[in-house]
Amino acid sequence: MKNLSILVVDDDPVIRRLLEQRLAKENHEVVVAEDGYVAEKFMRTRFFDVVLTDLMMPGDIGGIEVLEIAKEISNKTEVVLITAHSSVDTAVEAMKKGAVDYLEKPINFDELFLRLNKIANLQSILESARDLEHAMNTTETEASVTIQNLELQVAALQEQLDTIENILRDESLLDDTRIVKALDTLAEIQ
Q1: Is the domain of 99 the same as that of 159?
Q2: Which positions fall inside the Response regulatory domain (predicted)?
Q3: Fewer Cβ in 10 A, N or C end of the chain?
Q4: Res. 10: pLDDT tops 80
């Protein structure tokens, strides 16, 4: 599994520390923020593969706002909302705004790691697709240049063959002169 860069946003220091330890133990790069304001500062200075954010936090920047900020900054960042206050309406709202998933407290780490694996696998597939698209575009560009060069070479050779044909058909020249001129022109072909 790909190691992810993860921003954990939660006002509860115990949950922050627990998430930080468990995620780091799985070799993920973890940064923690105690509220939405600090999370926004982190997100504006670096990219995170995943933001795990508590839904309900003090201040004007709660989990939904963290989600909106993350998606505004990079649509490649996946956001998972975590809450003790499960609500279907909130989950639907979060998914509409771009959350990839929704977890309830207390956090089931097997479920969390399963979802992170899903995110990592999807990101790997998307990265492979981008690499393949780049390779195809490069190949297409190189093929186009090669075809263009071949067309130019064919046009130049056709022009030289036309010149040789005109020399050989020129009855104003002696046969030996026509042959010598035609051979000279032929020798110029590379």
Answers
A1: no
A2: 4-116
A3: C
A4: yes
